[in-house]
Specification:
The complex is a heterodimer of chains A (about 375) and B (about 140). Helices cover about 55% and strands about 5% of the residues of chain A. Chain A is mainly α and about 375 residues long. Chain A folds into two domains: about 290 residues, Cytochrome Bc1 Complex, Chain C; about 80 residues, Alpha-Beta Plaits (2-Layer Sandwich), CATH 3.30.70.3270. Helices cover about 30% and strands about 15% of the residues of chain B. Chain B is built from three helices and four strands. Classes of the chains: A mainly alpha (about 375), B alpha/beta (about 140).
């Protein structure tokens, strides 16, 4: 019955239909829908590599860094990367557009796991860590826009500061943490650089939590898909080269900026409502998104059970379990075998892969015993 | 003369793969191919090679194993596991005595009902020619 309801779900039907036709064109081996989680992961590596090159030449100050004759600061260093370094503009473009592509592929990833019902019950850790990762990615992307230190950066910084100041109690400390002091100084940009790069590496920790309940997570698309992903980015870089804005001047007050809808939409929201309402909306939306796995009442999973007298401790089920739900423990005293399989019920999806892995009928789904299935097969075969 | 009973083809199928609900009766007999009996699993990964052997031993003409498109398992890896087991790349595998000509595996998405029916009919035909060859010996 649950299955019936699920497949009448129109969103799931649309997803299935899309995937079916992608299979017809690209075959299942290269279907990007089957690597939906690996796509943003691949763009993360692209961002790390292109970011490394930008980092080598970036100077996080707002006034003259070396007391040199010419002004050398964040904006001029980005300008230097763009105009003087060979292929600097290309790497800057790759870094910008790979960031956008990462958000886009994350949205695809969210849509697919949501629409195909792969987000709740034993998968809640993946969903919740995914929400945290999404917020982190958005924030890291925004700090990237502060770093170039054009008029947009200045305006975004001031908007963020006023948004923080609107928060009770924690507002002031947050503001001072954010701009690294009471006012915008050179230290502000070094803090932005630290947040941008430091938080990027924390993504790896978040991803570890994201993957920890999955055996053999699919985190690398096939090479052909990778080439296509890079080609898309290069195509966009060639068609829409990144233009530097006007250098920020603390004495001036820019009022408009070009918006990147993947990262800067919260700033658009900020202009449409009071700051108090903005925070309520953001916090409320995050809480709602986090709670999505519990919106649907789920039938509890009937976890697999090990038949203690039959288990030989061969650990085939442990190797094949896709959710790391089986743990091999030392067999009790008096056993003929060294190990015994045990099921971590909170991780078990009730899929029965362990039943298929067991040659000794020693593990069973309580609602579908393999002896019953075998009998059913024998009756049907006669 | 002994009347030979018509033998059946057993289909072991993931309930999330090809949608056969409208194609079969409550006993799991396919309307378009009455020789074929369908037995559902929560995931094709639950199918044991032992079950394929049991079906053939109990007198089934052949066995169709059907899971979702490779890459699209709801439980992540079920169809890959049973494929590797049938191919002998992952333990436990099929016994060497099992007649490989009587086992077929299909990886079809929920929308590929027509494809399943035509493949099943083709398999039934293949088994008939196989029988005429082996009986002719």
């Amino acid at each position: 019955m649950v299955m019936q309801k699920l497949y009448t779900d129109p969103l799931n039907k649309v997803t299935l239909w899309l995937e079916h036709w992608t299979n017809v064109v690209a075959t299942s081996k290269y279907n990007p829908f089957y690597y939906h989680g690996a796509l943003p992961q691949f763009y993360l590596w692209v961002l790390f590599l292109s970011g490394l090159l930008l980092f080598a030449y970036y100077i996080p100050t707002i006034d003259n860094a070396y007391a040199s004759d010419r002004l050398i600061n964040a904006w001029t260093s980005v300008d230097y990367i763009t105009k003087t370094i060979p292929f600097g503009a290309v790497f800057r473009g790759i870094h910008r557009y790979a960031g956008d592509a990462m958000v886009l592929t994350i949205l695809l990833h969210i849509a697919r796991v949501w629409f195909t019902d792969r987000y709740r019950q034993y998968r809640w850790v993946q969903w919740v860590s995914g929400v945290v990762l999404l917020l982190a990615v958005l924030f890291i992307g925004q700090t990237g826009y502060y770093l170039v230190w054009d008029e947009r950066s200045l305006l975004l910084t001031r908007m963020t500061v006023s948004a923080f100041e609107a928060l009770p109690i924690i507002g002031q400390p947050l503001k001072e943490w954010f701009i690294n002091g009471k006012e915008i100084t050179n230290l502000t940009l070094s803090n932005y650089l630290f947040i941008h790069i430091g938080l990027s590496f924390t993504l790896l920790f978040g991803l570890w939590v994201h993957y920890v309940r999955m055996a053999r997570p699919v985190i690398t698309p096939p090479p052909v898909v990778n080439y296509v992903l890079v080609a898309i980015i290069l195509g966009v870089v060639a068609m829409f080269p990144i233009q530097s804005g006007v250098m920020a001047q603390l004495t001036q007050t820019p009022t408009t900026f070009e918006i990147d809808w993947f990262y800067l939409w919260p700033y658009w929201l900020m202009t449409k409502m009071s700051l108090g309402f903005f925070w309520l909306l953001m916090i409320g939306a995050t809480a709602l998104l986090t709670a999505v796995p519990w919106f649907v009442r789920s039938k509890p999973v009937e976890a697999a059970e090990v038949v203690l007298t039959k288990c030989t401790g061969c650990s085939l089920c442990d190797k094949d379990c896709p959710y790391e739900a089986i743990e091999m423990v030392p067999a009790p005293a008096g056993s003929r075998f060294k190990l015994l399989a045990t099921v971590k019920t909170y991780r078990c999806s009730g899929c029965g892969l362990c039943v298929g892995a067991c040659a000794f009928d020693a593990i069973d789904l309580p609602n579908l015993l393999d002896s019953d299935v075998t009998n059913q097969i024998k009756v049907a075969a006669q | 003369m002994v009347e030979t009973k018509k033998k059946t083809v057993i289909t072991l199928i993931c309930e999330r793969a090809v949608d056969l609900d409208r194609e079969m009766d409550e006993k799991g007999v396919l309307k378009d191919a009455p020789d074929v009996r369908v037995i559902k699993f929560p995931c094709s990964g639950m199918i044991q090679p032992l079950m394929v052997e049991a079906a053939l031993k109990a007198g089934a003409e052949g066995v169709i194993v059907c899971g979702c498109q490779i890459g699209d398992c709801y439980y992540r890896e079920g169809n890959k596991m049973i494929r590797e087991r049938l191919l002998g790349e992952r333990p436990p595998g099929l016994k060497k005595t099992v007649d490989r000509r009587r086992v077929v595996a299909l990886w079809l998405s929920r929308l590929q009902t027509k494809r399943f029916i035509s493949e099943a009919k083709e398999f039934v035909g293949h088994l008939q020619t196989l029988n005429s060859i082996t009986e002719g010996k």
